[in-house]
Amino acid sequence: xxPQKLTLHGFLSYRDMVVVDLSQINVACVSGANGAGxxxxxxxxxxxxxxxxxxxxxxxxNNGMDSCQVIxxxxxxxxxxxxxxxxxxxxxxxLEIQVKGSDGNWKPLTExxxxxxxxxxxxxxxxxxxxxxxxxxxxxxxxxxxAVQPPGKRKEILSSILGLEVWETYRDETARRRRVIQxxxxxxxxxxxxxxxxxxxxxxRCATLKNLEELLKKTTSLRESKxxxxxxxxxxxxxxxxxxxxxxxxxxxxxxxxTRLKETQDLLANRxxxxxxxxxxxxxxxx
Length: 287
Fold this sequence. Notes:
The chain is α+β, with helices and mostly antiparallel strands. It has 6 helices and 6 strands; from the N terminus they run E-E-H-E-E-E-E-H-H-H-H-H. The chain has helices at about 40-50, 115-125, 130-135, 150-160, 165-200, 200-285, and strands spanning about 1-10, 20, 65-75, 80-90, 95-100, 105-110. The protein has a 6-stranded antiparallel sheet, with helices on one face. A hairpin with a 4-residue loop joins strand 4 and strand 5 (about 95-100).
């Protein structure tokens, strides 16, 4: 992180707005009498970034002001950032972080809420307050803070300074990808086992297929024979239907002939009766 500009207004001993331009300074030495506000400059930096300083709450606000504001601009990894934190007497705190775009305009990176925005600042810096005051900025009277830390804490701070936490991220991501690949391998192995089982059953399935093909051939031949026989039966049925029509016609003709025969017999009987009557009449007259 390279400081570029620090703006204070109503913050601790700085009642009026003060702008400290650091953009053209590589090495600086801040000197002055006690109470001149030397430490306040560094408090402003830690408070703007992490919300922590030697004092807290309304004690940060200059006695003659109702609010305080710190704007800290810095460069990091070829990006230019601006953090603005404000505190209102008897009220809450506001926090914003912005990054300068290629067009020179500030683009907001502020999250929903101070806690989330502070986490975003930590992500940008890859530092938290503890690491910052143990590695980059030594608090007054606490230059040995890192040395007196427990071994575990020193290891944690060094890991953060050296960026070793990224390797934890890599390890977790590697473990996740390994689990994914292992799951995929397990699935492929399961499919391979199924394929091998299928191949082992190839001979039996080929034999079964051959039997089914032979059965199909026989069934096809039998069906053709049945179809041929069915055709013959249908032909016979049609012939029977034709014969039935003929029989029905002959039956009607026979019935008609019987009726005519009956009529002829009745007429013959009548004629015979008439002839008998005539013969009787002739016999009587001849006597």
